[in-house]
Amino acid sequence: MSAESPLRKEDLTCRTCHRIFRDPGLLPCGHSVCKVCLQYRRASTENPDDNLSLKNQRELFSQQRRRRASAVSEVLCSLHREKLKLFCLEDQLPVCVVCQTSRKHTNHRFLPVEEAVLDFKEKLKPKLKTLQEKLKIFKEVKQYCDETADHIKSQAQHAEENIKKAFSELRQILRDEEESRISALREEEEQKSQMIKEKIMEMRRDISSLTERIRATEEEMGAEDISFLQVTQWTLQDPERISGALIRVDKHLGNLKFRVWEKMQEKVDYSPVILDPNTAEPRLVLSEDLTTVRFTTRRQQPPDNPERFDWFPCVLGSEGFNSWRHSWDIEVGDGQNWMVGVATESNLRKGADIWRGVWCVARHNDKYSSSSRDQGFVPIPLKQEPKRIRVELHWDEGRVSFSDPVNNTHLSTLTHTFAESLFPFFYSRVHLRIVPVRSQTEKLHSM
Question: Which residues does the UniProt record annotate as the domain B30.2/SPRY (predicted)?
Answer without folding.
Answer: 253-444
